[in-house]
UniProtKB/TrEMBL annotation:
Species whose genome carries this gene: Polaribacter aestuariivivens
Name used for this protein in its record: Tetratricopeptide repeat protein
Signal peptide (UniProt feature, chain positions): 1-19
Matches recorded under InterPro entries: TPR-like_helical_dom_sf (IPR011990)
Keywords of the record: Coiled coil, Signal
Taxonomic lineage from the root: Bacteria, Pseudomonadati, Bacteroidota, Flavobacteriia, Flavobacteriales
Coiled coil regions, renumbered to chain: 108-137
Length: 430
């Protein structure tokens, strides 16, 4: 029993000593905090010292310490902590008439006013935040609407070629060619034609690149188009158009149908096959001018010692010549007669196909390579397509692979529909 009492006394003595030691340490920090305020008015440093003191106190039991805490936190604008210590002061202070009490009361009122102002400001900021969030949601909603509209006005194709001077271009989708305008209007869907060419104001679409059986043409001068007549309408045993040459700006197109001893010359402006009006008069004139030696009723002409089948007129006095007889090559051009000087260009040594002559030049192909010849068959500079350069204000913009938009005068356009830029669209709803 004596040992138990001795142990309890020791514990009590150590606890009292430890508590007394913590209080002393806390008082040291409190004193330092007061000194810092009096000497340098450094409330930040005073707060550091005050918080160290609080680590050694279970609770504030002194009005002076509570008053110090309230003042420090007030000066540092931590009004809620200042209010807590101020309330603790009033719990501990018994003399309501003392100067310290009255000063603390004045500070307490000021703290409460600042808290009210702070709460009002927090409320104002919260309302401002909510309004801003609402506005952002509204703007996001409008942006979603704009993006949906922009997507509807997008042109979903594989590629768009350059517009010509008359504002039309080729485009491709899934390996097919089509035609569209510079406002995004689809003129011909890319669904049937495997090949397309845009040259000198005319656009050709072919169901096959080689030996097509169907050709659609679009006249960008008149904004009209249709398909060429079936090759059998030109020659009853022809089944395809054979080699198709470039259309010329006068509207003439030359093709070389199979099983035919003459090229098909077509007027894209008049939508009709062009044939020599009076072949006998033409042959008679060529004979009188010693361009040919003679001709017969079978449209065969003799030049020097060779007989040919006369194949019509390509313009500029240039005539295709086919071999005489019934051999297997009778439907293949043998030579070209340039009547301006009587020269003959055999195809086996020169050019296999000639197009329509216009504006001092004629297209010529040899082994797939294109060159340009003069009216006498001499090679000249390549033809400059004056319709190739677009002069409008539409701009093709690639959004991503397979998605394009056409911008015109600051708007996305597609046919008769248009959409302003996003910033202008949003501005309408301000």
């Amino acid at each position: 029993m004596k040992n138990l009492l001795l142990t309890l006394c020791c514990v009590m003595f150590i606890s009292i000593s430890y508590a007394q030691s913590n209080k002393d340490i806390a008082n040291v920090y409190i004193k330092r905090a007061n000194n810092v305020i009096e000497e340098s008015i450094d409330f930040k440093e005073a707060l550091v010292l005050f918080e160290k003191a609080m680590k050694y106190m279970d609770t504030v039991t002194s009005p002076d310490v509570a008053s110090l805490g309230a003042r420090i936190y007030f000066e540092l604008e931590n009004y809620k902590e200042a209010q807590k210590y101020s309330k603790q002061f009033f719990l501990l202070s018994k003399n309501k008439k003392s100067e310290q009490y009255l000063n603390q009361l004045e500070l307490f009122v000021t703290i409460n006013e600042e808290i009210e102002l702070q709460l009002e400001e927090e409320k104002r900021l919260e309302q401002e935040r909510l309004l801003k969030e609402k506005e952002l949601r509204r703007i996001d909603s409008l942006k979603t609407v704009w993006k949906k509209n922009a997507d509807n006005l997008s042109i979903k194709v594989d590629s768009i070629y350059n517009f010509n001077k008359n504002s039309y271009a080729l485009y491709t989708q899934n390996g097919k060619f089509g035609i569209l305008s510079d406002v995004g209007e689809i003129i011909v869907e890319a669904a049937e034609y495997d090949f397309g060419v845009n040259f000198e104001g005319y656009i050709l679409l072919q169901n096959k690149k080689n030996n097509p059986t169907k050709i659609y043409y679009y006249n960008t001068y008149k904004n009209t188009g249709t398909t060429l007549p079936n090759p059998s309408e030109f020659n009853s045993i022809s089944t395809n158009f054979g080699q198709v040459m470039l259309p010329r700006s006068n509207g003439r197109l030359v093709t070389y149908p199979n099983n035919s001893a003459a090229p098909m010359v077509f007027d894209l402006n008049e939508n009709k096959i062009v044939k020599v009006a009076n072949k006998e008069d033409l042959l008679d004139k060529l004979e009188k001018n010693d361009i040919i030696r003679k001709y017969n009723r079978d449209d065969e002409v003799k030049i020097d010692k060779e007989w040919y089948v006369f194949g019509g007129h390509l313009g500029g006095g240039i005539h295709p010549l086919y071999p005489e007889g019934k051999d297997g090559n009778k439907h293949t051009v043998n030579a070209y007669l340039f009547s301006v000087d009587g020269s003959v260009l055999p195809t086996n040594a020169n050019y296999q196909y000639l197009g329509a002559f216009y504006n001092s030049k004629i297209e010529a192909l040899k082994a797939g390579k294109r060159v340009w010849l003069s009216q006498s068959g001499k090679k000249v500079d390549a033809l400059n397509d004056k319709l190739a350069n677009y002069e409008g204000n539409s701009k093709i913009v690639k959004i991503e692979d397979g998605v394009y938009q056409i911008l015109k005068e600051g708007k996305i356009v597609k046919g008769k529909e248009s959409l302003e830029k996003m910033v202008d669209f949003l501005r309408k709803f301000d």
